[in-house]
From TrEMBL:
Natural source organism: Bacillus thuringiensis subsp. medellin
The protein's name in its UniProt record: Uncharacterized protein
Domain of life (superkingdom): Bacteria
Length: 99
């Protein structure tokens, strides 16, 4: 399971009160158990996409926390494509694609 330890992060979606929320998390493994560590909350799906569009157009608005974690404009662009298409950059279908 060590191979997945170095991943930069992935999206997790949570549905509450009929709304979908987007979180960026990183998986860690200890004693063959997986634990997701939240890195950033993007908020509601609609708001997350709008914020990402704004950040892409004006990267100075990109959250400092994400920059400190090593994320760049290229990562942001991949996230936007992922949320728009419902597929990850590796071709995996996301749970939000079923909505």
């Amino acid at each position: 399971m060590k191979g997945k330890e170095g991943t930069k992060g992935f999206f997790v979606f949570s549905k509450k009160h009929g709304r979908t929320y987007v979180y960026l998390v990183r998986a860690t493994y200890k004693n063959q158990k997986k634990k997701n560590i939240p890195l950033f909350s993007f908020g509601r799906l609609e708001d997350a996409l709008n914020n990402m569009y704004n950040w892409r157009d004006n990267f100075d608005l990109f959250p400092i926390l994400l920059s400190e974690l090593g994320y760049s404009w290229e990562d942001l662009h991949e996230w936007i494509l992922t949320l728009e298409t419902g597929y990850s950059k590796y071709g995996r279908k996301l749970c939000i694609a079923n909505d």
